[in-house]
Amino acid sequence: LTYWWCLQHGESDNNVLGKIGGDANLSPRGVQYAVSLARHMNAQQIPDLRVWTSQLRRTKQTAQDICATKEHFDALNELDAGVCEGLTYEEMADQFPQEFAWRDQDKLRYRYPWGESYLDIMGRLEPVFLELEHMENVLVVSHQAVLRCVLGYFLGKKPEELPYINVPLHTIIKLTTEGYSCRLEFIKLPV
Ligand code: G3H
């Protein structure tokens, strides 16, 4: 029986504004979450805890107060929305109606111009999956689209289901694996 954890960064300023992508800081609520997350993790005194974050500010800030060895990976960065980075979905529909419609038709394969698709993320996560399969005591702090891929992979979901998996905000997801089966536990923290 082995277990590890994954979670989304706390609420960011771009989350509040409804903007896609970017490299925003945590919102005041996100900062509060980072504090209660550190309190929760530190209280458990997990031996040799390691924290993996993306290279973006919001995941680093979320993990900031956790006592652990930290590493930052490009592979854990959020889906690159290319020309749509920094837009709201409304602005995207307005400025790039054809792109918006294509994405709606095939969210798994749709690649933003100069950006990525969910399938691209699955590709760049491959080395991460290989490591996670025989790791313990790792806490992965990443982003919604990336964590959908991570959960989908470990739960054996169909590729088409990936872009729609629910990854709740301000919630620690504990994954326990036993052989080929994987169980999830959701720990919602008060913010
Ligand atoms: O922009 C990044 C979001 O996490 C992706 O969400 O694929 O539902 O647009 P979405």
Automatic annotation (TrEMBL):
<comment type="similarity">
    <text>In the C-terminal section; belongs to the phosphoglycerate mutase family.</text>
</comment>
<protein>
    <recommendedName>
        <fullName>6-phosphofructo-2-kinase domain-containing protein</fullName>
    </recommendedName>
</protein>
